[in-house]
Amino acid sequence: MSANPIPVIAIDGPSASGKGTVAQLVAEKLGFHYLDSGALYRIVAFAAQQNNIAWSHAEALGKLAESLQIRFKEGEIYLNNALITEAVRSEEMSRGASEVAVHPQVRDALFALQQSFRQSPGLVADGRDMASVVFTDAKLKIFLTASVEVRAERRYKQLIGKGLAADYAQILRDLQQRDLRDSQRSAAPLIQTPDAVLLDTTHRTIDQAVEFVLAAYKNIS
Ligand code: DC
Asked: What is the CATH number of the domain that holds 47?
């Protein structure tokens, strides 16, 4: 099999690390496509709730994930033509996504869909297993993280900024729980692959993180 010439930048990391924002900005700068793989797990959790399927029901979730009509357009997410962008961003769906993502049946059902985002001239993909499973041949692999306290603080400020109620201690507990579930599951756990570059944003701004990724990419191009 010949190597796929379309370059991929894989950005993996824990919840609320800012990897989505960084990945989107890098994609914009390079004129690349963007894949928010976490959104796919969120959509599965959301659709499961709508269809009264428990987040623990691996077989039914796998079948559901295969049947979904998902569309990303201009920053919005559509499921079976309904706009669900805000609905899947809720804290409840953050937890649901982390729960449905432990099942290999769900991961397998989403595998080909994720790979189909690899389109010319290139792709920036963010998630947990972009480097380790979905795009193992990525040209650049970044492991983007920050301390759990800083991540909780950023999420807290984000919610307050939107005029929503937020409880810092609760957010911190939820993040710790999700970190544990995402990194300790047996199917495609969150790991830094040996060939990934570590980008710790605890003391970096979004712009600095974007510059870091662009410089690393330029270095190898
Ligand atoms: O990146 P995010 O917070 O939107 O992801 C939500 C959940 O989805 C996360 O807790 C774990 C799961 N996920 C995953 O298992 N694999 C990915 N590639 C992306 C997300």
From this structure: 3.40.50.300
